[in-house]
Design brief:
Elements (H helix, E strand, L loop, with lengths): L1 H14 L17 H27 L7 H11 L5 E2 H7 L5 H13 L3 E6 L2 E6 L1 H22 L3 H29 L2
Antiparallel strand pairs: 1-3, 2-3
Helix pairs in contact: 3-5
Length: 183
């Protein structure tokens, strides 16, 4: 019985293409098997990144924020300029501004972000408390994440190339989403 199993397994592996690491084998296309592998990598990297952001902020002293709220706090703080809701949503590539508005309201309620009405616009900026937690987040990030990546210039170059590739690919996915919407 064991011999038959091992022969069957050996015959099956000889006739099958190298195993793909994917989450949905039914979506694998002969035209781009690598796309399915990339999407699975993106899924698990995305979840790991989300987990990291939330835990880093918890270590920085705020345990009640979701990933989006942490990312919005950082973006509102970016370049120390007040930002409009629409600009924040656009920069983060979030189509539904209601999601961003809800998250910003939570950050305002926690006194991490403040809102200010200028004419017809509402602008958001970080408070002193928000800036303190952002500074602590940076310290935790340096100690736990940046130290793990190191300062290898070749690895950092690859990270930069990967970042450019991901931004380009976001346009491909956006275009595909527009195409799917019109079907």
């Amino acid at each position: 019985m064991a011999t038959r199993k091992s022969r069957t397994a050996g015959a099956a592996s000889a006739s099958v293409a190298p195993a793909l690491v994917v989450s949905s084998s039914h979506l694998v296309s002969d035209r781009s098997r690598e796309l399915s592998e990339f999407e699975f990598g993106l899924i698990i990297a995305g979840h790991a990144f989300n987990r990291w952001v939330v835990r880093c902020m918890a270590a920085a002293g705020i345990k009640d924020l979701a990933t989006l709220e942490v990312l919005l706090l950082h973006h509102v703080n970016h370049r120390a300029r007040a930002k409009k809701l629409a600009d924040v949503a656009f920069m983060m590539n979030i189509e539904d501004t209601h999601v961003v508005a809800y998250a910003l309201k939570k950050l305002v309620a926690m006194d991490l972000v403040k809102s200010e009405k200028r004419g017809k616009e509402v602008l958001f900026s970080t408070t002193a408390k928000g800036q303190q937690h952002i500074a602590r987040y940076r310290e935790v990030r340096e100690a736990c994440l940046v130290a793990s990546v190191g300062s290898d210039s070749a690895q950092n170059f690859e990270l930069g190339e990967l970042a450019r590739f991901l931004r380009m690919l976001s346009g491909v996915y956006d275009q595909a989403a527009r195409a799917a919407t019109s079907l």
